[in-house]
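Blinded run. Sample ID left blank on purpose so nobody reads anything into the name before looking at the predicted structure. Input follows.
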Amino acid sequence: MKRKYIIPVMASLLALGGCDYNEDNFAGLDEMTRPTDVRNDTLRLVDSDYSLIASNSINQENALKMDPEGKFYVEALKAVGTNKYFTEDAQAAWYLPTFISGKFPYLDDNSKVTVYYNNFENLPEYLKDFNGIKSYSLTSDDYELIWGDQVTANFLSPKSIGKISSVLKAVNPDAKDGDMLVVNYAYSETEPSIGGGGSGETPSEPTWTQLATIPVRSKGENWNYVNMGAVDLSAYKGQSVNIGFKYTSTAQGGAKWELKNFKALSVPYLDVYLFSKQEDGSFKKVETSKGFTGAGEYVIASLGADNNYYPFGRLTGDDYTYGYMYPDPITVTDGVISAADAAYSVMSVEATANGFALKNAIGKYLYMSGSYDSFNVADTMGEDGYEWTIASAGGSDLFSITNVAKNKSVKLNYYVNKDGEASYSYGSYSADKVGGYTYAENSLLGDEGGFTIYDVNTGGLDYVWANDKTYGWIANGYVNNTNHDTESYLVSPTIEIAENAVLPYFTIDEAFRFGSVETITVWITTNYQVASSALAMTRASVTPNTSAVYRYNASSQSWSKYSTDAADIAVLQPADYTQMGYSYVSKPAETLPVYLQRTYPYAKTNDVVTVVYNSNSDGAIAATEFTYDGAAWTQTTVASSSIITFQKTDGKWEEARVYLESSLLNGESGGFTAQDIELSGLSFVWKLDNSYGWKGSGYLSGNKEAESWLISPEIDLTKAVAPTMVFDIAINFLSGNDLKNHLNAKISTNFSGDATTATWETLEITGWPEGTSWDFSTIEPVSLSHFVGQKIRLAFHYKSTAAVAPTVEIKNISIKE
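Blinded prediction complete.
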């Protein structure tokens, strides 16, 4: 047992004694006896290397550390092994050091390894604009600057939106040209009122009554919008009411609820549903706008406030030639009409030049004539009034059928005759006529529509409801991976129902997921008063509802909304994050195509959209480009063969940044191009040679007066630290003349395509060869630190005369840290 303690102590003493002995008595012995292995090596990755890198346990641990969700970077690393290339989510700089360490375990400090590897990048040129982009949210002081002392409003409106530039200029006095910001602000289509007012009394709490009968509800299985049907308000004739859409969630879960296309009318004028024919002869409800495929056999029906479906297409008598339609209800079970029930009401929809022709079950074509709202029928199709368009009525499962000639739309109306007998009937009506019976109507897309918020419990969230230009009003209690206890009402504007209203009702489109319909209910109140705490616009003062990208223009000293011809710019809005349940997007390739599919429903093949979004919990901004292939949105990728160099420092392999590197041999141009100024009979001065690199000469059967520039591609040193340049060069036939008169290496920071108009700075080079042989010399490293933070061009400027025409050969050029 004692040896367990004695041996380590003795070892320590020996170590302590040995540490100083050699150094004290034999200075430099350690350096003399320890071999060094400093090398520059090259690796070209093969398929098996990618698998080894992806399966390396240290790399996997590092990927897991970077990923708060424990999946994203880990899966991206796994994909390296499968796909045999690196990506922006699994970067070569992150995972190659471990691989190199295993390949070259005995190399010493200052050794370098250059790796050639496959990489997929999504970097169109304009995306570089987004480098370094930050976000800024308007403050109360900013709103005060915009509105002055006459208005107290913590939001922007159509009249004030243009003042964002002044705010950004004030809060960013040191902005540089091209600086970018995602600006977050509260916005309302409603202009604020001037001055104060109000009694100062606290409004009483509203009394809510749940509406027991909602004709149709979404099943919550997808994001397809469903129209709720005509919700009967007849019990409230002669009263002023507000409809409350009540959202609740708990710590165990909750739905995400979207509402749009609100209407309230005094009498039904209802759009129709389409039921398309199935293989078994039955007819199934078309649930989305894209579900309508054009010509075919359909049953067209509308849902009355009595929860019955009424089919369209037949006049009261088959021998009638005109009139309104007074159908009997048809049986619809789970969205399907049986073949037997449908037989009487089948409509043939036939394609025409400007839409469709409608032919009913007895072969009669429907058309409109004169100024009447009724229908005419004929055995054959005529020219005037016979064509109809069929289009989505707001993006839900409802459709609008409109006569092309008359611009009137088919509606199911509730008609009461002079004897007080009521029935449902079909006519075709103008928008103006329907508008005369409308209490309220708003798409709610980017427009709050006069709705307000009545929060009972926000569960610690800034808000439960948010308005969005694509999805309307959205309620969500799931934010940042956490469910919250919430209860909040979205309250309609006041509906003043006339005493003599025929059949007052409201209707709205809804979609929801991830919860039950029992937690998203519809209520009504007759005593709602908008308290200051419930005002939607007041809430906007603390919670931005709009985001946009702005860019600074130094020449005009102003900020303006960013746009580019290369792509449409789509900025994720606060409501989008609410719908997703996250405050950032960690998997753009998976998440954003769903967003784009909904935001751009009419996209065309090859449409390009760049989405700007928060990419992590710290609020970092990313911009990712997507292209529509006619069926889906895919992340745009650009394949490239890439190079990266690592240097061993203090025992660790670290990336040595490479800005330009090429052997210039075997046809590898390095991206250099020649611009000839004077040739004097020569065909060229610079020529790329497989064995000697770029070769410059003014000799052809004698010396010629010539001048030419060999110009590099753009070299980006904006993020460089201490870049240096080296190259190999051979010079012959200088004949003792001063090289500076015939060849110089120069740098320009303003080259725009013409060497003669650019400003050039001549580099001081040490190590030029004497100019008397074909032997290559390597110049001493040239510091380019003077150009850090800029984009440059390197050029070799060659001149020859009738007396002297040296030949120059350049190869193995590099600019790196």
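Unblinding after everyone has recorded impressions. The first strand starts at residue 40 and ends at 44.
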